[in-house]
Amino acid sequence: MSQFDWHTEDDAYWREPPPPPKRPDQEPRRRPWPIIFFIVLALLVAGGVVYRQVKLQVESATSTVQADVLSTHNLVQTAVNRRDLELFRSQLSGRDPDWTSAEEAVMGSGLMAGRDFWGWRLPDPLPDQNLTPNDLATAFATLKLSPDLNEAELQYPQSYVLTPSPGITEVITLTQTAVYRRGSQRWLLSPPDEAFWGGWVTNEGDTLKLIYPERDAVVAERLAADLEALLHEICTAWENLPCPTDLHVTLRLSDSPESLLTAPGGAFPEAGQSLTVPTPTLLGLPRDEAGYQAVYRAYGGQLATAVIANLVGWECCQHAPFFQVLTDYLLSQLDLRPWPITSADHIQVLRHSVSMADLNLYWDRRDWLLREVDDGWEVYTAVDFLLQTYPFIDPVQWLRELDRQRSLLNWMNQAFAEQAYGFAAGPGLLEALDEEWWRFAYSQTLLAQEQAPLPAPFPDEDLEIVCMSDTNFDEDSASVLYRFNLESETWTEVLSRTAYLMATPLPDDSGLVLQSFEFTEDNNWQTEFWRDGQSHVLFTSERLSLTLGQFDPAGQYLIVYTESPDSEVPQTSLLDLNACVPDACDPLLLEGQPFWSPDGRSTIIAASDLFGSSTFLINGSVVLADPSQPSLTSPLHLGDGQGQLLTPDGEPAGEGYSPFWIDNQRFGYVRPGAEEVGDEVVLANAADPTEAAVVLTLADITAVGPSGISAPASIRYVITHPAHPTLLFVVSLDALSREAYVFTYDLEAKQLDLRLQSPVWPYHALGFSPDGRWLILTGSDPQDASARASGASSSLFVHNIASHQTQTYVSQFASGILSPLFDWSVDSQWLLFVVDDRILSLVAPDYDYQWVFAHNQGNCMATSWTK
Predict the structure, then answer these.
(1) What pLDDT, in 10s, does the model give residues 441-487?
(2) Which of 760, 785, 813 is the last residue of a domain?
(3) 781, 836: one domain
(4) b or e along 131-151 (b: 16 or more beta carbons within 10 Å of the residue's beta carbon)?
(5) Is 583 part of a structural domain of the chain?
(6) Can the peptide bond before residue 316 be classed as cis, meaning omega within 30 degrees of 0?
(7) Dihedral sign, CA of 137, 143, 144, 145?
């Protein structure tokens, strides 16, 4: 059946159309707000997701860039700290060759972080300077990235240590700035562009025109006002340093890294040119008031130095050290730089025997001194002494004369020329000033000693010293023995002789062995004991008779050398002190030089030649009189406690030199060895001395010691440790016998160590403290020919055997080998020696402390402790 409804055209035509439906009353149309809300919400959620994803991507990219930049920066800091120019160069951008070359030069000069010239020291040790992203989060450092993430500006802190006054230090922290750019493979340290610095700004004052980059405007504006005030202060500070009425100075704060190089070299512009110094961003931006004051003093010091140089007519850089020291003195009065000298520096003058002639080393120098590293402290100390002692010396006038004098002596003479001070012009002036400087330094030393208590009490002993009235060695010359009481600080004249007097302390400090050679026609030699203020004459001889104070371990026998009428070699004999009658002791003749075993019952007898053998063993100490003489090799025989041969006609116990005892049975000596091994140290037993065993060779020593021209070339002598005799102290000399090397060899551990190295000319002595903890070695300055010739400026090395630490002191050792060069108190707490013929020194090495005092006597030769 069909589903369609058919209609004819007729039906449509005749039927009336239905009436239109009635329209209901119209109501307002409602908006679909819920739908809109949900649509907007959906859009926001979607947008948030997109934003978050974009933000995360940006943050991730930023974090990656930050990490990469900090990685490069840390490599730069590592290179700077290690002074590794190759590593530093690999982190530099090459877009500006001039900037790159300047940065490399700054790096090579140690100025990338160092600021020593401005008085700022890097902390020691340096803290860890690596930066991490956490440092950026805590504002410890800041990193500003360009929008395209291809350039970064890093600001990070750098600490410096300042010394505003001697003995006081403070730490400042400045901000350093570095620019990094993305290279083809990694980030590189790069030159800032013009936009980084901004334009140039000029601040015009009454006397100062300051030109600076816009970037540093905040700091520069304050500097302009303060430096303007400084110029006015300079012009009124010294009456004889007036400024011209039209004084006008231009100071440029440069944005070029080259300014870091030129400023320490002397920033002295020519007439009409500006003084150029690094801008604060290069030097370091202050973070607080302390930092600003440090920056102000740095700029103020350079500005004032340039102005003073211009006013006195000094042209850089003749006699630069003296100009710097005098200028620093003036700047200290302006509170721009600290004056570094204290009484401690003058104590060093005594300790190191500094003289005015030593300043000649600095006269012709054209480079600057760095007081912070003790370069040129002698010049500072000398100027301090002169300006304090002689008010008529005007530092301004001295600066005016600096360029006009050809020598240091002329410069000194000019200062004293118009003064009736009693100093004659000429070479003698420096020597006269040395005397005055010594007195001034001694007074400073006393002040320091009064302010600081002794680290340990003085021993219950007195000091004795021998002095001469003059050095004419005639009937008008007298030798005097003085005694000094430390507690009361009083001197007592013990005895006086018209003779040359030598004094050697007894081993237990109970008295002295005195020897006197009369300045008369008789020329008699007299040897005596001096105990408790009493003389006990041992013998008197018309022939040369000499003792070096060599005793057996018990102190009963004394070795004496007497001129022999039948031989050019002095005769060796013993004096038995227990068998002496008043004014005489019968000598016991010996076949050679005795070396006693620890118990004193046995000896090794070696050939004896007082003038031919220059090595002397004196109560546990060794004195080397003439290192250039070869060692005296001879047969070695066993003897009894009195030095008498056990087998007069028998075979020797060995052949060599420098015998020593390990214990009462074992002994050793040095003998020449085969060419390939050199000298040998051998050990033997007294029961069968022919079976000698080699324990050490020169080849062993050269393998451990320094190499080169002055390498060890011979073994000169061996001595055992007084408390540990299996520890050998082996002294080797170089081929020219000018350099001594002290080795220790542990027989039990078979360990060889180099302990000390010292020039041996002109005198050499090695000894131990009574308790065996300290080794003493003497030497001299190898660079000072006059010191080597006269014995002046010799070094005294005090070496802690257990800790391997060494203290160094200076003495003239004017007494020579016939008197002790040093002497220990019996408790091993205080070491006594002569600084020069008028100054004595006591050292407490446990505290690294030196106490010095002077006396009014002259030409003093020897000093020792006495009970």
Answers:
(1) 877 877 777 777 889 999 999 999 888 887 777 777 888 899 999 88
(2) 760
(3) yes
(4) beeebbeeeebebebeeebeb
(5) no
(6) no
(7) negative
pLDDT per position as a tens digit, 255-311: 999 999 888 766 676 656 689 999 999 999 999 999 999 999 999 999 999 999 999
* Assigned domain for 117 exists: yes
In this structure, the answer to whether residues 749 and 682 fall within a common structural domain is: yes
Q: Are both 170 and 95 inside the same structural domain?
A: yes
Confidence band (pLDDT; 50, 70, 90) for 11?
Answer: very low
Q: Are the C-beta atoms of 266 and 366 separated by less than 8 Å?
A: no
What integer pLDDT is reported at residue 31 of this predicted model? 59
pLDDT digits (tens, 9 = 90+) for 125-166: 888 888 888 888 787 899 999 988 899 999 999 999 998 877
How far apart CA 732 and CA 745 sit, in angstroms, is: 13
Residue 695, Cβ density class (10 Å: 0-12 exposed, 13-18 middle, ≥19 buried): middle
| Same-domain check for residues 258 and 170 | no
318 is a domain residue: no
Instruction: Give the type of residue at 804.
Output: H
With beta carbons less than 8 A apart as the criterion, state whether 677 and 696 touch.
no
Segments forming the whole domain that contains residue 213? 195-312
Q: Do the Cβ atoms of 345 and 381 come closer than 8 Å?
A: yes
Task: Supply φ then ψ for residue 410, to 5 degrees.
Answer: -60, -40
Domain boundary among 760, 782, 806: 760
Number of domains in the chain: 5
User: Are the C-beta atoms of residues 595 and 731 closer than 8 Å to each other?
Assistant: no
**Spatial distance between the Cα atoms of 706 and 631, rounded to a whole number of angstroms:** 22
Digit-coded pLDDT (tens) for 741-760: 999 999 999 999 999 998 88
Structure tokens of 602?
Answer: 């046995």
Domain identity same for 273 and 247: yes
Please state, in angstroms and rounded to a whole number, the distance separating the CA atoms of residues 690 and 682: 11
Q: What's the mean pLDDT when you consider all of the chain?
A: 85
CA-nearest of 596, 615, 718 to 668 is 718
DSSP letter for each residue of 484-523: EETTTTEEEEEEEESEEEEEEE-TTSS-EEEEEEESSSS-
Instruction: Let me know whether 152 and 171 are in one domain.
Output: yes
Structural domain includes residue 552:
no
> Does 736 lie in the same domain as 681?
yes
Helix H segments across 737-780?
none
Beta strand 208-213 pairing with 249-254: parallel
Q: How far apart are CA 614 and CA 630, in angstroms?
A: 8
Residue 792 pLDDT class (50, 70, 90 cuts)? very low
pLDDT digits (tens, 9 = 90+) for 525-579: 888 888 888 888 888 877 778 888 899 999 999 999 988 877 778 899 999 988 8
Q: Which of helix, strand or coil describes residue 763?
A: coil
Amino acid at 586: D
In this predicted structure, the answer to whether residue 7 has a pLDDT above a threshold of 70 is no
Question: 65 and 185: one domain?
Answer: yes
Please report, for residues 343, 502, 543, the alpha-carbon distance to residue 517 in angstroms, rounded to integers and kept in the order given: 42, 9, 10
CATH of the domain at 55: 3.10.450
- pTM recorded for the entire structure: 0.66
